[in-house]
């Protein structure tokens, strides 16, 4: 119980710090997803231990203090925020809670709308004319932004229709409309490009831009930002018995509402709608981060009341976060095909980008020092390039004093031979040439996707072939016969036949893929292509000098030495001759075309073609692809759910194109 209490106090302190940055200072050291993850953990702990809930908990209030410099406005009815859920299971738990409170067996009709990534505001109309506007602020007191709101064309200065004014929560002739100030993706990118040209700091996300624009002291600057507004709530009684009717009235009054809004009879309807929206999310004009789901019947909604900071009858169903917080339970060491010792964080399982992550590479000792990471730390994890799990930040303020330092071993954890730090890099290697881990990992790499790509020959089958003594190295794979494989456990005649056929289909290979398959340290997809472009054949590369290799574009001294030394190692020479007796290398022609000299970076998922097909077509037209965005990048191709590469491209002013434009270029 003491540990739980301590964790809750640490979480409250951290959340308050980051919430103040986000709501008051309009900046944030960590991502919104990571902050959501911390809040989610606190809410779950408080649900489990309700006696530990205190009035000062972030779960019991909306936000921080309002900014100075604007007149304060007190909201007559508080602007509440919503509780977040991230999974179908958590959503179902919310449904059970409300049906239990209502003493009914079936979930009431629900209304689902998009959760815009913008800034919530309140608009008060007096006699049908806009009288005042305020930000949400801390939920009770906001900032007067009336002058800036008047510059937004999506907001009517006079209501289109005169609403009935009976039974309002306000003074007799007033009505309050609530909604979200947002900006289009194109508008967001355009403003950031302009700021890059002027040498100004770019906005991290559309919500920050909307907030920053609305808080300008000069309304002309706000007007130039072309902000938009979507209404979603009427405070008071205009005869709206359902939330659906509320949207209809808002449209009659002259406001935009969510075109995607959807009535759902069952939770299956909600899940299908969420999947559809998440699939098409990147095609939307605006950024969204989930759905808002609420009970459609307003009387039932009001009956459910409020719990802490949130109405019980509504929930924010968030999309899978791109970042989340979790705890590092341990750090293990893996040995790769080159003998490199890689520390790997063992994590409390957490969902990031729709995938459950339990491990993340820490790369090397220097990275651990840079992060200041200890075993037991709370960390922010993401997925590098939208795929590979990585640890991005340590939240040191959540430490309890029980965390442990990690030291990379000086002996290989597999063969126990000595391990040495490289003179040229922060990497540590097992010095035993016959280390079993190197051997096994090297064969996994050889048959893998970027090398020989032998269908059906994965790590588990390679393990069986090695354990049974059927292969000693990767070259032996091409000598396998059906009769060798068929007697093995779980391998029938058909599967043995399929594997042998797949092996024979790969007895001819391109020069770049062959170079990747050799497993030379530092030689990946791009370096292999650069070497193939420069030398044109394996014979010329094998005979080349250090100076000749060093002349290759994008190849530095460390890679040069690694390539040169590999071809002069006696073991590698024997292995290469053996391999060349079994496979052939296709004649190589360096590509040339309209993309010559151009470098592309792909981010997010493409719909019309796979990422590998896109890379192949770029190279066929003479271009290059890279995994990271830099000053030398010419184009970033943004597919569905682009990751941090797109943010970096915006910062550097690199041209960003969507899939449609990319296909047109091809």
From TrEMBL:
Keyword annotations: Coiled coil, DNA damage, DNA repair, DNA replication, Ligase, Magnesium, Manganese, Metal-binding, NAD, Zinc
SUPFAM superfamilies hit by this protein: BRCT domain, DNA ligase/mRNA capping enzyme, catalytic domain, Nucleic acid-binding proteins, RuvA domain 2-like
Cofactors demanded by this protein: Mg(2+); Mn(2+)
GO molecular function: DNA ligase (NAD+) activity; metal ion binding
Enzyme class: ligase
All residue ranges annotated as the BRCT domain in the record: 590-666
Gene Ontology terms: biological process: DNA repair; DNA replication
Keyword DNA damage annotated: yes
Coiled coil regions, renumbered to chain: 1-48
Matches recorded under Pfam families: BRCT, DNA_ligase_aden, HHH_2, HHH_5, OB_DNA_ligase
Positions that bind Zn(2+): 412, 415, 430, 435
Gene3D superfamilies: 5' to 3' exonuclease, C-terminal subdomain, 6.20.10.30, BRCT domain, DNA ligase/mRNA capping enzyme, Helix hairpin bin, Nucleic acid-binding proteins
Residues annotated as the enzyme's active site: 115 (n6-amp-lysine intermediate)
Catalytic activity: NAD(+) + (deoxyribonucleotide)n-3'-hydroxyl + 5'-phospho-(deoxyribonucleotide)m = (deoxyribonucleotide)n+m + AMP + beta-nicotinamide D-nucleotide
NCBIfam families, per database record: dnlj, PRK07956.1
Purpose: DNA ligase that catalyzes the formation of phosphodiester linkages between 5'-phosphoryl and 3'-hydroxyl groups in double-stranded DNA using NAD as a coenzyme and as the energy source for the reaction. It is essential for DNA replication and repair of damaged DNA.
HAMAP family: DNA_ligase_A (MF_01588)
Protein name in UniProt: DNA ligase
Organism annotation: Candidatus Giovannonibacteria bacterium RIFCSPLOWO2_12_43_8
Lineage of the organism: Bacteria, Candidatus Giovannoniibacteriota
Gene name linked to the record: ligA
């Amino acid at each position: 119980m003491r540990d739980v209490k301590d964790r809750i106090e640490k979480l409250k302190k951290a959340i308050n710090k980051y919430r103040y940055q986000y709501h008051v200072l309009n900046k944030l050291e960590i991502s919104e997803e990571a902050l959501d993850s911390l809040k989610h953990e606190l809410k779950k702990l408080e649900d489990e231990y309700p006696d530990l809930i205190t009035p000062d908990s972030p779960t019991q209030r909306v936000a921080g203090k309002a900014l100075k410099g604007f007149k304060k406005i007190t909201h007559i009815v508080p602007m509440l925020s919503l509780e977040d859920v991230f999974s179908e299971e958590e959503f179902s738990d919310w449904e059970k809670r409300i049906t239990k409170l209502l003493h009914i067996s079936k979930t009431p009709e629900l209304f689902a709308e998009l959760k815009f990534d913008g800034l919530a505001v309140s608009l008060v109309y007096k006699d049908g004319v806009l009288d005042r506007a305020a930000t949400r602020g801390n939920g009770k007191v906001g900032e007067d932004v009336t002058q800036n709101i008047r510059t937004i064309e999506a907001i009517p200065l006079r209501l289109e229709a005169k609403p009935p004014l009976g039974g309002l929560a306000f003074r007799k002739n007033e009505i309050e409309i609530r909604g979200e100030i947002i900006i289009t993706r194109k508008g967001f990118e355009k403003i950031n490009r302009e700021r890059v040209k002027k040498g100004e700091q770019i906005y991290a996300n559309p919500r920050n831009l909307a907030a920053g624009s609305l808080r300008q002291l000069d309304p002309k600057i706000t007007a130039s930002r072309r902000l938009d507004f979507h209404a979603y709530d009427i405070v008071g009684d205009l005869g709206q018995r359902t939330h659906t009717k509320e949207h209809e009235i808002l449209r009659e009054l002259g406001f935009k509402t969510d075109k995607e809004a959807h009535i759902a009879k069952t939770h299956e309807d909600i899940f299908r709608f969420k999947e559809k929206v998440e699939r098409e999310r990147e095609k939307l004009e605006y950024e969204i981060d989930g759905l808002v789901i609420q009970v459609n019947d307003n009387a039932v909604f009001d009956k459910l009341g409020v719990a802490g900071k949130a109405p019980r009858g509504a929930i924010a169903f968030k999309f899978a976060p791109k970042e989340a917080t979790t705890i590092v339970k341990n750090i293990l060491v893996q040995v790769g095909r080159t003998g490199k010792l890689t520390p790997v964080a063992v994590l409390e399982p957490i969902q990031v980008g729709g995938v459950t992550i339990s491990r993340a590479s820490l790369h090397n000792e220097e990275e651990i020092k840079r992060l200041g990471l200890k075993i037991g730390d709370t960390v922010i994890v993401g997925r590098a390039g939208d795929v590979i799990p990585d640890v991005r930040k340590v939240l040191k303020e959540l430490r309890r004093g029980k965390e442990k330092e990690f030291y990379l071993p000086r002996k290989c954890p597999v063969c126990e031979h000595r391990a040495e730090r490289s003179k040229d890099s922060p990497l540590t290697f097992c010095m035993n040439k016959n280390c079993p881990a190197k051997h096994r990992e090297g064969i996994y790499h050889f048959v893998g996707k970027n090398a020989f790509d032998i269908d059906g020959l994965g790590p588990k089958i390679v393990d069986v072939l090695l354990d049974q003594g059927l292969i000693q190295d990767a070259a032996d794979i091409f000598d396998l016969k059906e009769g060798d494989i068929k007697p093995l456990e779980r391998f029938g005649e058909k599967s043995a036949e399929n594997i042998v056929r797949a092996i024979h289909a790969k007895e001819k290979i391109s020069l770049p893929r062959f170079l990747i398959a050799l497993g030379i340290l530092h030689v990946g997809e791009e370096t292999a292509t650069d070497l193939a472009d420069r030398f044109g054949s394996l014979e010329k590369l094998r005979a080349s000098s250090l100076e000749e290799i060093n002349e290759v574009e994008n190849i530095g001294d460390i890679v040069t030495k690694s390539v040169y030394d590999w071809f002069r190692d006696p073991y590698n020479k024997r292995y290469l001759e053996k391999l060349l007796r079994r496979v052939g290398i296709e004649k190589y022609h360096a590509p040339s075309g309209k993309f010559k000299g151009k470098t592309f970076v792909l981010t997010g998922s493409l719909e019309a073609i796979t990422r590998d097909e896109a890379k192949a077509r770029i190279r066929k037209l003479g271009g290059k692809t890279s995994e990271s965005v830099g000053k030398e990048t010419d184009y970033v191709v943004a597919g569905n759910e682009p990751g941090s590469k797109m943010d970096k491209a915006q910062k550097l002013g690199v041209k960003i194109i969507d899939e449609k434009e990319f296909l047109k270029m091809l």
